[in-house]
Amino acid sequence: MIFQSIRMAFESITANKIRSFLTMLGIIIGVIALVVLVSLVSSASDSVTEQVGTLGTDLLTVMVMDDKGNPLKQGDLAELSQNPAIGQIAPLTQTLVTARHGYAEEAATLYGTYPAYGEIYRWEMKSGRFLKTPDIDNSSYVAVLSLEAAEKLYGQQDPVGESLLLDGRTFTVIGVMEEDTSLMSVMTTSIKIYAPYGVLTRLSEMRGGISNFVVTPSNPRSMDEAEEAVTAFMERRLRNDSDAFYVFNQSSLMEVVGTVTDMLSYLLGGIAAISLLVGGIGIMNIMLVSVTERTREIGIRKAIGASRGSILFQFLIEALVVSLLGCAIGILLSFGLLQVATLIAGGLITFFLSFQVVVIALAFSVAIGVLFGIYPAYKAAAKHPIEALRYEG
Fold first, then answer.
1. Tens digit of pLDDT for each residue in 41-94?
2. Which has the closest alpha carbon to 336: 320, 352, 348, 323?
3. From the centroid of its chain, how far is CA 6?
4. Residue 127 and residue 117: Cα distance in Å, rounded?
5. Dist. CA 150–CA 8, nearest whole Å
6. Backbone angles phi, psi at 246, to 5 degrees
7. How far apart are CA 218 and CA 224, in angstroms?
8. What is the Cβ-side half-sphere exposure of residue 354, based on CA atoms within 13 angstroms?
9. Tens of pLDDT along 158-215?
């Protein structure tokens, strides 16, 4: 009976192709709106989450706004690192310099830090090495180049072991990093070079102390304990003035990103669901027209013994088939649109068709087909056979 009802539904749909397609169009547009919008947000969310993850989720960033006339020194960081809740710690300061090699000259951002900084962010080296403890202890004039810096200043030549002028000071290149595709790298316009912290403070004649450093916990599961230890140390160091510094827990950024993208998905999904409801109204309208057109057919079927249930089931199946066909076409078109969006994004974001969203769209389409098909089906089943046979149309 089910297969016969489905066959009859397809015969009815193909008998009025244009009308059937226009009926499906509301569902097609609704499904495209739901699938594409939610998939775009989901893909963008995953991309942003991945980029934020490259910044380190088990990471604390400390910024000093007011040192109270007693600048934070490297010895203070050494003292803080003795706390059992603290894993690695590294200061970071920066200045703009002019980098020269041969005839090549580029504006660059020179960062001063510790070897732990590269370990915290798990940086990979293309050639050479990153900073080491002896470089810090000896205030060696050594530099680590980003891949972009190496290519602009040295071309295809391996710069490791070569000299480099930074604001007229000679540095020896000890390493080249792998390409950095993180969010922070995209936001930085100048090329990046890394040197020992003490060398940079001397080069830039910085009179202040450390104003920015990063900390990791000794155990990734004890972020709160590490944050408490850092906060207590800074309060003690800065005369119990909690406004003189700020401790940013990187994991909280992931939570904020997740909350914002979830809300955006629900919002856009709700808007798209309204489009599906409009499509459902179109289905109900056409099904009512179909019931009216096929009144004599209904009368004949009832006259030869068809039950009210079978008539209701047939028209309900027809509404459901229209809705599901529109859903299938909408999903296929959504896949194509997402591929086009990926090409337009130029590889920065890969937009994908989420299986979960497809299931939601399918469930919505089934619900729309049943919800808006039940009344026309009931109206068809309720017709009196004698009156239906007398109907002239």
1. 777 777 666 666 555 567 888 988 887 777 888 888 889 989 998 989 999 988
2. 352
3. 41
4. 18
5. 70
6. -140, 130
7. 11
8. 19
9. 999 999 999 989 999 999 998 775 555 555 657 899 999 988 888 876 666 888 999 9
